[in-house]
Amino acid sequence: MDHPSERMLSVSLKGALRWSATVLVLAAGAIHLWLYFDYFHRVHVVGVLFLVNAAFALVAGLALLFSGRPWALLAGIAYSAGTLVGFFFSVYHGLFGYVESLRGPWQEAAGGVELAALALLAPLLASALVPAARRQSLRQTTRAKPP
User: Among 89, 84, 92, which Cα is nearest to 108's?
Assistant: First the structure.
């Protein structure tokens, strides 16, 4: 990637992926906020967790919006993965006396959004953690040498 246009493409692709992941994290938080007001405000303790979920989504989303650093990417991954772990725990073991159902329109919407965010954030984090020198070394060894 020696040519400036290749670098710009890489930067713009990473920016587009990060922006998309930001939207997905914020959408998952919005779903949880809506679900709180729709029903979960009636469920002891779990309702408050839906508000905490929405608040953490806002924090992680803003971190992703303003920074592509590994800590911001980790915040988005922690939010998405943590929400999925909490959901599955609630389905199979219950959470504070509330047992969630695995299937349903909102479960599938939130789960799909969180999985999509993870699918975008994981390669971005991997890319951010690979040092630039290592990437350059890999490019030189994989590039075909002219005869």
Answer: 84
Q: Rounded CA gap, 70 and 145, in Å?
A: 34
Q: What CA–CA distances, in Å, run from 77 to 83, 103, 111?
A: 10, 23, 13
**Per-residue pLDDT for 105 more than 90?**
no
Q: What is the pLDDT of residue 95?
A: 86
Structure-block tokens of residue 125 = 């984090």
> 114: pLDDT confidence band, cut at 50, 70 and 90?
very high
Output DSSP code: residue 144.
Answer: P
- Name which of 73, 81, 77 is nearest 125 in CA terms: 73
Query: Rounded CA gap, 131 and 82, in Å?
Result: 27
Q: Please report the pLDDT score of residue 137 as a whole number.
A: 67
Query: What residue spans define the domains of the chain?
Result: 25-129
